[in-house]
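User: Could you check the structure of this?
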Amino acid sequence: MCSSDLTHRRYESPLMAVDEVQIQGQVSCQIPAADSVVVIQPRAGSVTVTESGMRSPDSPVLVAHGMSCVLRFNGARFHVVSIKQDVLFKVAADTDAPLPPRIQFLNCRPRSRPGVRAWHRALDYVTDTFTSADTVQQPLIAGAAAPLLATALLECYPSNATAEHDLLNDPAVPGALKDAVS
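Assistant: Sure, the predicted structure tokens are below.
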């Protein structure tokens, strides 16, 4: 770890937290998997996932059950979003797909560019909402942030809760199999 200056601001509701972090200099840190799902969203500077060497100029980095990672930040500004598993489960329960006993993400890479764009829009809405002074007087709007981000997260990354949806959208899957599954 190298010397650096750090600024931090936290916005939270009972079901999630959004941390805005800015680092001047270089820092490496391990993000362990926990009960909450964590997404690191780069905003500026350099963020590298050290295991893969993948630079992530605008893609979110998922840290979930079984998916810890080491990140290297260099002059970076980013958001850290923590969402409780209960919120993901509640959002997934509102779909027609069978519900697994525990939601697990199948890959740390986003499913598609449109999924990433949906995540960006949802996160921008939430950060804009949380930074507004009016939000203190609007607890229902602040409370809706966690389900919105959980929904965007399930759309962005493949999971066992969206496996049927992923299968039906895979162009490599034969039509007859898609018909049988749907």
